[in-house]
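Sample entry follows:

_____
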Amino acid sequence: MCSGHDRSRGLTVAAAPLPVRDGLGPDRVRMPVEGAARTVLGFLLDEYPEEDWHVRIAARELVDEHGRQVDELTRFQPGRFVYFYREPPPETPVPFPVGVLYRGDGLVVVDKPHFLSTIPRGAHIRETVTVRLRRDLDLPDLVPVHRLDRMTAGVLLCTSDPLLRRPYQALFEQQRVRKVYEAIAGYRPELEFPRTVRTRIVKRHGELTATQVPGEPNSETLIELVERRGGRARYRLYPRTGRTHQLRLHLMSLGVPIEGDNFYPVFVRRAPGQFTDPLQLLARTLEFVDPVSGAVRRFDSAQELSW
């Protein structure tokens, strides 16, 4: 579909006039302010002829933004949205479970496996933490309040109550969460630890990788050496900012890229369905003062890296 088609179906469930179905919210299309079509159906048939709109109308699964059913005679509504369900393309199942560390008080804290995306996006729709948990836990309003890269495993905080979403998102935006990561990478005897790495990271739209460039630092990570075995080492990382691929870039900048990293220092595309040699990066701990109860909360991953 064209740019008018809303791809964020996995995240906008609270305001959608159709309920979540099988973990997925509806898609939506916005009608242009100006158009020659006389009916909603006429507009949809002209713009998206590959879709079977008559079947959706017969199933009563095409509605306007107020939840009113759209039929063959519904007049064109300039600037308004229509909502409908759309089956995503088949995906290769990620063969690892999502462990639930905590569920209660409107929170769901999970132990995300490697290879599973956090939110529906691009080629990964059903095989995401968001869709799996909505479906398996019957929590249609569940939304992660922060993100982990698809290749990173570990603790992920979600809310199942839309009213709680903003307070917990603000914790991350205001850097009021203590985050601890672990990584396996190479060992260089000339490097002294602990050490703080500060660089300027730029991620350009449309590019898969980020880069470190000269200029005022916008990222910071405290790195500790936990132990080493020959030419390998286990590191503990405390990010104080949350730039894209920050930890991967900071260890690479020290000459010790994380094991299993197919993005840095050289991007190598993984074959679909390849679930071996995962990135050796784990979000071990999240700790924060709860914005609702005031209690100190701490959640730790039960996973271990290949060491």
